[in-house]
Amino acid sequence: MDNYKLDQLLLKVEKPARYIGGELNSVDKSKEKVDIRFAFAFPDVYEVGMSHLGMHILYQLLNERPDTWCERVFAPWPDMEQQLIEHKTPLFALESTDPLCEFDIIGFTLQYEMSYTNILNMLKLSNIPMESHDRSDNHPLVFAGGPCSFNPEPLHAFVDVFFIGESEEQLPKVLDIYNQHQHNGWNKQAFLEEICQLQGIYIPSFYDVVYKEDGTIKERVKKNNKAPDTIKKVIVKDLDISYYPDKIIVPFIETVHDRVVLELFRGCTRGCRFCQAGMIYRPIREKKPETLIKQVDQLLQSTGHEEISLSSLSTGDYSQLMPLAEALLDAYEKEKISLSLPSLRLDSMSSEMIDRIHSVRKSGLTFAPEAGTQKMRDVINKNLTENQIMDTLKVAYKLGWSTVKLYFMVGLPGEEIEDIYGIKDMAYHIKDAFFDRPKEEIKGNLKVSVSAACFVPKPFTPFQWDGQNTLEQFRDKTALLKREIKDKKISYTYHDPKLSILEGIFALGDRRLAAVLKNAVSKGCRFDGWSDYFDYALWMKVFEEENIDYTYYNHRNKSFDEVLPWDFIDSGVSKDYLIKEKQKSLNEEITDDCRLNCTGCGINHQLLGGPCFENRN
Amino acid sequence: MRIVIKYTKKGKIRYISHLDTLRVLQRAVRRAKLPIKFSEGFNPHAKISIAYPLSLGLESEGEYAEIEFTQKMRLTDVQERLQKCLPQGMEIIGIYTYQLSASLASLVSHQIYGFKVQIENTLDTVNVVQQILEITQQAYTIKREKKKRNKRVYKEINVIDFVEDVSVHSVQGDMLSINIKVKATDIGSLKVEELKTWIREKVDGIEIRKISRVDLNFIDKSWLIEYN
Ligand code: SF4
After folding, report:
1. Which atom of ligand 1 has the smallest separation from the CA of A602?
2. Does A2 touch chain B (CB under 8 A)?
3. Hey, which residues does B181 pair with through a beta bridge?
4. What is the per-residue pLDDT for B228?
5. pLDDT for position A616
6. C or N terminus of chain B, fewer CB within 10 Å?
7. Do B113 and B175 fall into the same domain?
8. What is d(CA B223, CA B221) in angstroms, rounded to the nearest whole number?
9. Given CB atoms, is B13 within the 8 Å cutoff of chain A?
10. Contacts of B105 (CB under 8 A, 6+ apart)
11. Which of B99, B118, B144 is a domain's end point?
């Protein structure tokens, strides 16, 4: 796009910096000198997308290839969307400002279901046919990967190639094959047939799904005999030697994660039964402290960031956490670089350490008990007792903390009214513990904030067979807490149940929802994760028009022998294990952290070919 | 040691806000490993400030920022190292030691805007120039809208009160360069949009093609001496 045209757009939008590119460590290449033009597409606004670590890894990884130029594109905010339409300008990538339709491949990342409409809308704004079968050999290929690709079916009609699992190693292989095909005469079908034989690659157009009369799945039929029956997820086996960029893009505008993010490990051993990440990212793989220290040094150099954030699913579980934190503080404290640790475990830290970790002071203490009673926490296998929280708090109060954040869920399987009251009780106990001390010790202004999310059952968890609460149930529960929590020291917020309902439908959905998505986008649905733009009534109208009873997807309890839409994907965790866990949850029986004792989820046989914790410590 | 840098903000970088520009400068200083001074207190921040805000989307040929170091530095050295860490479009075009006790921001007296206008009919050039040179002789009021507790309040402002001088800088073919010197007072200054309306209304036969901020003026410019 020429500069004049671009200026006409940029001058009319609220935050033009979202669309200008050119940030530190972004990559410019000459399009004549590369074979593959790849657009990494994040179906949300710039600030959200740029806060996502996975994007940064893949962006730099692809740009290290001399034959590829990877650029970025984000969902244009509605003000920019309007400008694009008014100026008849197709959606463009940030680096070259070339329209997406000129690219070879558009790769979407699927982080949450509520961004699906943005994917379709981005294709629409690029004048690229939304549905794969309408795209010719000359259109860009559409790839997708990320956690939501573990149930890819609602998007099957729009995506050519899904990547299941961690794509750092698979994507380069696919690009190599792409290049060969381009040089030997391009034929999309032939290319898809070749890559479908790689682990973790799913080509939805190679399959059909046949349904029973009651609407459930009868069977999947292969339309192409080269296609595999099941798709096995891919993992990076050794994070110490896998690719990690030495530079990441530094946005001009402030984003959520304006700091060096260090990924300490992947996977989680806690086995919370509601948590999809805890299942699909298995097994746990730690990086060595030496690796991390080297990476942080390079990243601080190349970005000029002032904060290091240690991030993982359950950061406190990192086996070398304290030595690492100490080493980082020793190295960078002088330069006023601060360290932030989410999900802190104070009990294992010296008070001197606590003092040195700046972020804790700023943001207060955070706990995620997820449920209000011990019974419920046993059901969901959240191994955190009220006593543990209280012990930590006693230390923390003494050290001068006075801000506590608590995260809960409502609508969990087997939940009763007492469990909702339990949320209130816990908040009040935490408040009482603050004032139940000698007067002279009480300092600061106590602030307890309680946040309640509405539970969404997710594929590949022991709760994948459970029906989600109805809108009314969610409303009753969140309203009850609103009524009950009446204290100046305790604030209460809850997530919009409507949003969680829609999330549930798409998380648990199948191929028949593709028509719903298409219709919703034609009616103007996008940015559904943003309350300003989310229009529940419009969605309900779409379901009606498409003649789809959405309750079939999210509110129905399923039997163990029903064929689930995502059953053809092998996450490495066996279905038997999930069933066993579901049954244990019914008996309120907990499963230990498998760091202590392997609890037999199957990932070791399926993907590792050996135990998870060999050679550790 | 305190210094002042003068730099440009051109190209796409003009689309980043005042605050984001400040962050770009802070980061550049850090990456250049310059011995920046930090404020005291619990949330220390690097001692850098920009003399006067620039509206989003406007190019500038003369921005100023004040930076404090913990030790004495060679200006050429600072310039070289800092320049390497700045994004495209931000070019250091001057560097000065600064020893006044007042902050640089408090010394700003005028903003100078450059308007590039195209004359529709070059036979009119003399007439157009005349209109421009006489523009300050007539009062011109604009209404400013303000929101006060959901109510709209209007305030009338006479543009001339804020304009010190309008001059024609150069004529090239059908393009005229005009410089407008606008007062930056305690009670505020004029917005670019307001200047635009004024010029459009008062000068016939032209089309505004480009606006940029050319420079700032200061009450005390004793520090503003070339170092080499
Ligand atoms: S195989 Fe055993 S140790 Fe490994 S993740 Fe599964 S349960 Fe945990």
Report:
1. 1
2. no
3. B112, B165
4. 46
5. 46
6. C
7. yes
8. 5
9. yes
10. B49, B50, B51, B52, B66
11. B99
Q: Is A334 on the interface with B (CB under 8 A)?
A: no
Least confident of A34-38, A570-574, B42-46, B82-86: B42-46
| pLDDT one-digit tens code per residue, A173-229 | 999 999 999 999 999 999 999 999 999 999 999 999 999 999 999 999 999 999 999
Shared domain for B170 and B82, answered yes or no, is no
Same domain, B78 and B162: no
- Do B124 and B93 belong together in one domain? no
Alpha-helical (H) ranges within B48-169 are 75-84, 125-133, 159-162
- Domain extent for B185: 109-217
Two tokens, residue B88: 């495209």
**Residue spans of chain B under pLDDT 50:** 228
CATH number, domain of B198, equals 3.30.70
Same structural domain, B113 and B208? yes
Examine the domain organization and report whether B41 and B138 are in the same domain.
Answer: no
The total of structural domains in chain B comes to: 2
- What average pLDDT does range A370-398 have in this prediction? 90
**Can you give the pLDDT at residue B150?**
80
Structure confidence at residue A117 (pLDDT): 98
Distance A165 CA to ligand 1 centre (A): 17
- Interface pTM (ipTM) of the complex? 0.85
Ligand 1 centre and the CA of A317: distance in Å?
15
Chain A residue with minimal CA distance to B84? A24
SS (H, E, C) A330-390: HHHHHHCCEEECCCCCHHHCCHHHHHHCHHHHHHCEEEEEECCCHHHHHHCCCCCCHHHHH
Query: Which of B73, B99, B125 is where one domain is finished?
Result: B99
Where are the strands (E) in chain B, listed by range?
A: 2-9, 48-50, 59-68, 92-97, 108-119, 141-148, 151-158, 163-172, 175-183, 206-218
Decide if B61 is inside a domain: yes
Same domain? For B10 and B84 the reply is yes
d(CA B20, CA B3): 21
Among the residue ranges A172-186, A256-270, A469-483, the one predicted with the least confidence is A256-270
Predicted pLDDT of residue A317: 84
A513 lines ligand 1 (CB under 6 A): no
Contact A21 B12 (CB under 8 A): yes
3-state secondary structure of A131: coil
Domains of chain A: residue spans and CATH: 3-232 (3.40.50.280), 259-341 (3.30.750.210)
A604 in contact with ligand 1, CB cutoff 6 A: yes
- Residue range A121-138, pLDDT digits in tens: 999 999 999 999 999 999
- The predicted-structure confidence for A511-565, as pLDDT tens digits, reads as follows 999 999 999 999 999 999 999 999 999 999 999 999 999 999 999 999 999 999 9
Decide: A608 in ligand 1 pocket, CB within 6 A.
no
Mutate to test the pocket of ligand 1, among A598, A608, A613 (most ligand atoms within 8 A of CB): A598
C-alpha–C-alpha distance, residues A353 and A400, integer Å: 14
Chain A interface, mutation test: which of B15, B21, B81, most A Cβ atoms within 10 Å?
Answer: B15
- A11–B28: do the CB atoms touch at under 8 Å? no
Which residues in B lie closer than 8 A to residue A306 (C-beta atoms)?
Answer: 30
Q: Which residues touch B151 (CB under 8 Å, ≥6 apart)?
A: none
Once rounded to an integer, what is the mean pLDDT over residues A150-174? 96
Q: What percent of chain A has pLDDT over 70?
A: 96
| Residue B49: CATH number of its domain | 3.30.70.580
Residues of A in contact with B41 (CB under 8 A): none
Residue B210 in domain = yes
Residue B104 lies in a domain: no
Determine the Cα–Cα distance for residues A425 and A240; give it in Å rounded to an integer: 44
Residue B224 lies in a domain: no
Residue A601 CA: nearest ligand 1 atom is 6
- Confirm whether pTM is higher than 0.90: yes
Distances from the Cα of A41 to the Cα of A115, A143, B135, angstroms: 12, 10, 51
Contact A526, A114 (CB under 8 A): no
- Give the pLDDT mean for A294-299: 94
